[in-house]
Amino acid sequence: MPEQKPNVEMRSIPGMMNRGPGARFATVEHAENAGAALRRIAAYFGKEKAMVLGMLAAVVFGTLCGVYAPSVQSRAIDIIAGSRGGFLLPTVGLMAAVYLLYSVSQLFQGLISARLSQRLVKRMREELFSKLIDLPVKYLDTHSHGDVMSRMTNDVENISTTVSQSLPSLFSGVLTIFGTVAIMLWYCWQLALLSFATVLLTVLATKLLSGRVRKYSRKRQAYLGQLNGTVEEMVAGYRTVVAYQHEDITTENFCSTSDELTKAGIKTDIFSGVMGPIMNCIGNIGFVIIAAFGGYFSINGFISVGVISAFIVYAKQFSRPINEIAQVYGQLQTAIAGAERLFIVLDEQDEDMSGEPLEPRRAAVEFSHVDFAYAPGRPVLRDFTLQVPPGKKVALVGATGSGKTTVVNLLMRFYDIDSGTIRIDGQDIQKMSRVSLRKNVAIVLQDTVLFSDTVRKNLEYARDNARMDDIEKAAELSHCSEMIQKLPEGYDTLLAASGANISQGQRQLLAIARAFVADPKILILDEATSNVDTRTEKAIQGAMQKIMEDRTSIVIAHRLSTIRDADIIVVMDRGEIVESGSHDELIKKRGKYYDLYKTQYAGFAT
Length: 606
Ligand SMILES: Nc1ncnc2c1ncn2[C@@H]1O[C@H](COP(=O)(O)OP(=O)(O)OP(=O)(O)O)[C@@H](O)[C@H]1O
Ligand SMILES: [Mg+2]
Description:
Blueprint: H1 34-46, H2 49-81, H3 88-134, H4 137-142, H5 145-236, H6 238-243, H7 247-299, H8 305-346, E1 365-373, E2 379-388, E3 393-398, H9 404-411, E4 419-424, E5 427-428, H10 434-439, E6 441-444, H11 455-460, H12 468-477, H13 481-486, H14 504-518, E7 522-526, H15 534-547, E8 552-556, E9 568-573, E10 576-581, H16 583-589, H17 592-600
Parallel strand pairs: 3-8, 3-9, 6-7, 7-8
Antiparallel strand pairs: 1-2, 1-4, 4-5, 9-10
Helix pairs in contact: 1-8, 2-3, 2-5, 2-8, 3-5, 5-7, 5-8, 7-8, 12-14, 16-17
Bound molecules: adenosine-5'-triphosphate (ATP) and magnesium ion (MG).
The site of adenosine-5'-triphosphate (ATP) has 13 residues, from helix 9.
């Protein structure tokens, strides 16, 4: 059977790293420029100097104790064996003290590195979030949400684990190896060299096994990602799955991925499971070598029995870090690659918030000869010229993809135009600060966004200092006060994250109410009433008429009944204005608008 290729990128599943027994060997990613990433990571460490120094001191001290303790032990044994003079009790006391200090310094090392890693990660996480929130809309439009999420969660989490576990163990491992090797050579270089022979075996076995573990755990992570994806889609799209009777196929998919996951899981666990016993076996071979040759050397008077005992401890002490370093190395690489991805986001250009304040008087909006393309070479708006007189209502109509939402994106400066000008009361919005521009424009987007908070908070979202009266008035005008009253806790009802506890139309009404709370100079409604019944829509129209008396509004709608009474109706086609005028004028003209209207109202008198 051909190997099924996992198609879900594992990074996109939050919290997936560091899971399961093979996790220490999980996928190794490589940074493009590890040096630069390391330097920047070092800068983060630099801000926590005291803690870094404390941790280093603990590691160095602990390693020294670890290297020194066996030699005291060796002395004690020699005293017992009678091959050396001295008092046993103080020597045993010293040995106990050194071992105790060793444990205490390891405890400190753990405590400090836990704090250090959490502090570093806190800083990174917060920097990243405030960066994300300051990025231009374009960034989030062009990057997959999964990718952004995974930087926030996986990458940050990997760095945290690395700082708290891998770095200390790498550092103490290297120190231990050097210290142990030096002292072994000093005690008896012949025996030392003999016991190093097992090191070769250790390195070989580690290389062989960790390669396998890495391979299968990478597969496992990918299948796990795929499995999560299937579950996520099933849960999110449950109704669609059931409606099209895809239960069986979805289950089959799930089970086949689950099978693959099981196979990969078993292999990962087997290979990482045998690692311990094999290492033990090699270690025991080492002990045998030490015992046999040590015994021989001891009988011939080269070394004492105590030295043999010390050697046994040293041999164990230095094969452990070799094994560890092999594992930690992969983790370190992954963390550096993750850090690099974080830095890429941190280096993105912030949205430029500078500029003059907008001082709208009557809010006349004017687009003149605007050209715009999301991607170079694929123009979306061409020579777009439109005048919206103050206080008037302009409607944009046109086929799907004709560029209506784009006009709004440009007016809000979510994107900047390529050429031409957009002015509000004669002021060029390109020179205006985005904050002050957006303060004066309220927008109800095509896809309604409500936050998982109370109804009141969602409405207050539009204006910091909104009073309850304002909120209630806005709710009244947008015809949702009755519906809010019917909610179990009125204005204090919590909206579910997906807004599932209210209908789509009710969501839209709340979004409109929110825009009314903002009390803007300019109001933009992009398909804001598409899910609301026609009667409520008409009523909202009336209310809007009232509150929009002194304001300019731009309304986008597919349902032409919504915009009949607009002062100007602009018909767009492929980024260009093909017709404009009032409803009656356009009907008389019998052009595109007439055709659209006729198709929507086939059989009705106009
Ligand atoms: N963020 C984006 N990046 C690249 N291209 C985009 C982006 N948003 C829209 N487009 C493209 O720009 C064109 C106009 O899109 P726009 O969203 O303005 O259409 P629309 O008139 O609002 O359509 P609808 O009635 O479906 O809402 C489309 O061809 C679309 O593919
Ligand atoms: Mg649109």
